[in-house]
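Q: Is it fine to ask for two folds in a single conversation?
A: Yes, each is treated on its own. Send the first.
Q: Here.
A: Result:
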Amino acid sequence: MKKFKMTSYFGLLLFVLFSCTNEDTYDENFSNENEKSNETTIANRLMSRTALPRYSNDRLIVRFAPGVADSIKADLRDIHGVTNFKLCEHCTDDTIELWMFGNGINIEPKKSAIEQGSGGGVEAIVDVDYEFTFGIDLNNPDLGTANDYNYHSYIKSSNDGVTIAVLDTGIAPTIGGDDNAVFTAPFLYNADGDGNPSILSGWDFVNHDHNTFDDNNGRHGTVVSSIITSILNDSPSAIPHQIMPLKVCDQYGKASYFDFLCATNFGLEHADILQMSLGWYDDGFGDFLNTIISSLINEHPEVIIVTSAGNQQNNNDLLAHYPSGYTHENIIAVAAANKYANEAFTFGNSNIANFSNYGLESVDVFSRGENIPFLGYDMSGTSFAAPVVAGVIARYKYEHPGFSTGELLFQVINSGSVCPTSFDTAKKVKYNKVILP
C-alpha cells in the first residue's frame, strides 16, 4: 500500500508482452529497446535480460476518451496507418484497442506522432505505451498431468463471500488426483449471472476460450490459487469465496501486456481482489507510471490488488518493478520471508528469503515465500508469498464488509508480526511486518 499518486491520461499506451518464465526467447517482431538507449543504468545491465522488457516493433495500445464515436476511431486508424486492431475480450470498456502496423515502420516516431495528434486525434486518444516482453523466474518442478483440465464440476452453484481473480497461468482443478486432491469442493467463480454465455467461470486470454487450464508444467497459477483457498478454507470459520481464473500466461509463462491489461480490466469489473504473481522491471525506456493499466487501477479504488515484488534480490526503490511498484492506495506489494517465518518457535530466526526483492518505499510487507509445501514438493518465490496476503485480505474483507480499501489494508498490515531482529536491516520493506496466514 503506497501513498497515492494521481496518474494522468497522456498519449497512448504501447502494447506490452511480458513473461512469467526465465526463458531467453524472442519473438520475431520484438527487440530489446535497451540496446537502442544510451541511458541504460548499471542496474539494468546487471539485470537478467529476461527480466527486462522487450518491445514490439509494430504494435501499440491506445485508449480513446470516453464517448468517441466509432466513425472517429476508424478515421484515426486510417490516418495513422493501422493495418489491424483488436478490442479487449468480454470487457464493457470499448475504449482500449491494440493497434497493429505493417512491417518497416519505426515504432518510436509512430508513438510520438499519435501522442502529439499528428494527423488528428489529440483529444480523442488519451493514452499510449510500448509493447514489450519480460520474464520472471519459474522454478517449479513438473506437477500434475495434461488431463487436469476438467473444471465444470468445480464451478460453484452460486457465488458468495469474496471473489479473488488470479491473473496467472490458469488452473488445473483435478491436480493431485483422487488420492491427493488439492481442490476437494467447488471453488471456481460462477459466471452465469454476468450475462455472457461464452464465459462459464474465468477466461483464457491467451487461447481465447472459456477453459483456463493451467498448461504450465509447474502449474504456477494452480499453486498460487491453492494457497489462497487453503488459507480461507482452514480459517477458524471457513470463509466463503470463489477463485476467478484469468489465464494471461501461456505454457511457457509468456504473456502479452495487452492480454494482461484486458484481464486486469475484466477482473476489476467482476472481482473484489486481484492476485498478480508476475511482473517486469523499469528499463528506463518506457513511462510505466503513466500507463493505461495505472489509469484502470485508479478508476477502481474499491478493488484490492496484491502483487509479488520479484525474485532478483533487487532494491525496487532503485530499479522499479511493476505492477508492484504502482503507487495506488489499493495495491499491496509482497516480498518473501524465508521458511522460518511461519513457525512460532523459529520465527525469531526468520529473515528475508535470499532471492526476494525488497524496498523501503516500494514494497509493503513480507510473507513466507520459501519452501511452501505442494504435493510433496517445496515451492519458493515471491509468487507464493503474495497469495498468502491475498488470502488474509479476503478473510478480513469477509469479516469486515463495511471497511473501505484503506481501512482494510490498514487492519491487515497492523495484524502482521514485526520483523524480528534476525531480518537483514539492509533489505527492508515499508511496514516492517510479516503477514502470517
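Q: Second one now.
A: Result:
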Amino acid sequence: MADEKILKNPSLLASIRQFKGEDPEDFFKTLEATAPLGQWSPEQLKSIVVLRLEGRARRFYEASLIGQDLTYEQLKSKLLSQFKTEENFASNFSQFSMAVQLPSEKVRDFETRIEGLALNSFGEKAVGKNEMSTKLREKMVLSQFMAGLQPRIRAQMIIENPKSFSAVMELGERIETVQFMLTPNVNVLNVKESHSEKVLEAVRASGETVEKTLDLLCRQLDSLNSRLDKIEREKKGATFSI
C-alpha cells in the first residue's frame, strides 16, 4: 500500500499543464497518455488532477467536490461535464454576438440564422429553467439582429425606430425591396420583346409593395427634414445667445 502512494517518475509531471477550466478534453488526454509512462495508478491520477487545478477549476472543486469520495473516473466526468458545457456556451455565444448579415443574405434569412444561433446559445432549456426570461432572450435577439444588419438597412431602421420584432422584420423587408428596386438590374434591360407582357404583369402585381415602399421613403424624408429643422433652430438659438 505504501508503495502505491509513492509516485513513480515524478519528472513526468512537468508535461501535465495546470488546468484552469479551458479545453478539459485535451487536459485529460495528455494526462492519460502520460500515465503508462509514469506507471501511475487511477488513485495517483486523481491526486495529480487535484494538484493541477487552478483558477475557476480549483474554485469549482473546492465548492462542489471536495470531501466527496470520488474515483478518478468520477472526478474526470464531473470536471468534463462542468467545463465542456461552459466552453460550448462560450463558443456558441461568441458566434451569436458576432453575427452580421452577409452582403447577399436577405433580411428574412439573416433573422432565421440569428434565431438558430440564439437557440444554441441560450435556448429553450435555459428559458425553461428560469435562467433567462423569454422577454430578455427576445430583447437580446432583437438587439443583435439590429446590430448585425447591413449598414444601409440599419441606418434606415434607426430613423424609423420600430418597437417590436415583427415591426422590425416588416420594415427590414420593405427597405430591402426599396433598395432592390432602386438598384439598376442589367438583366431587365436585356429583356426581349416577347417577354415584355410578363414584365408588366410582374410590375402590376407588385403595386402594393411599391405603394408601401414609396410611403416609407416619404416618411424617412419627413424624419430627415424634421431633424434638419431642429438642428437649424438649435444653431440659430446658439447664435442669439452669443
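Q: Anything structural to flag on that second result?
A: Two points. The radius of gyration is 30 Å. The first helix runs from residue 2 to 5.
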